[in-house]
Amino acid sequence: MGVTIHDVARAAGVSVASASRALSGRRKVTPEVAERVKQAAAELGYRPNAVAKALRDQTTGTIGMIVPGIGNPFFTTIVEAVEHQLQETGRDLLLCASLYTPEIEARRLNTLLARRVDGLIISPCDFEASAPAVLNAARQVPLVQVDRYIEGGGADWVGVDDDSALAQAVDHVVAGGARSVVFVSSRLMNSSARLRLAGFQLATARAGIAARSPLLGEFTLAWGFEAGRSLLADGPLPDAVVCGNDEIAVGLLRALRLGGVRVPEEVSVVGFDDVGHAAMCDPPLTTVRQPVEEMAAEAVRLLGQVRVGEPRAAQRIAIAPRLVVRETSRLATGGTMTGDGQEGRETT
Questions:
Q1: Which residues of the chain have pLDDT under 50?
Q2: At the topology level of CATH, where does 162-290+322-346 sit?
Q3: H or E stretch at 97
Q4: 178 DSSP assignment
Q5: Which of 111, 112, 185, 337 has the greatest CB tally within 10 Å of its CB?
């Protein structure tokens, strides 16, 4: 049998109630009693009963998080950022992946609810099909959407300002001399894909340049490579390609290189996210950096504001991104740039 609170109290020479108060911190005891109890607990190897504490406090100290897939470097990055924010408040993260499937996503939500998580952070995999399960979960525990959101909102959301992101990308390639641009991204199954296509169309219309029909597939390396081969086969090449994420951009760069195309001399390429390998690919990728740490901090902050059953308008927070210029895009004539000594040429 494991060490109990009774054992700790006996070793410290105090009552069980005093030992419990000293270890929980909910009610004050004298510094002398607190020290004796903590020392006794450490010497005996006492571990509090997490289940009993959860039943007593009506909280588990855990937050559930669901992302479409952890193979995508962006989602890995946002998960790490959320976990860092939760650690600062003494909470733990339970992570699930929906595998880009609404039915699996709904099962994952039910699993986390059964674990009695204190709240949920989710990046819904489908703009429409994810809505019923997400709204059902939001009626039971505090819930915040991050990066992606469901049709009609229905819950707080934190993400990037896609219009600003695509405006920065398009304005940059236009300043570098591009007069024809194509957008390569994902099919419009989620809000991110929809917002980025809309932002690209708005930016090119404002700039008055020719935007070819978008190439829409998946947010993957394989799709970027396939799209690059399609551009090579169809010809002539556009002056610039703006991609819906870095995975697509890296795949496309490989296809262009194998096709003998010089980047950025013949074609400029711009990604989206600024995940780790963006700076390490060859050539280093110009991309729009998502403010991941800020997004995670806002998501955790909003989670603490949600009260289930209380009437409250859902909040939408779009955080400004910034363009990181490296070596896959042409700079404007006479432009200047600064470097950080790590990522090659970089400017904002």
A1: 334-348
A2: Rossmann fold (3.40.50)
A3: strand 92-97
A4: -
A5: 185
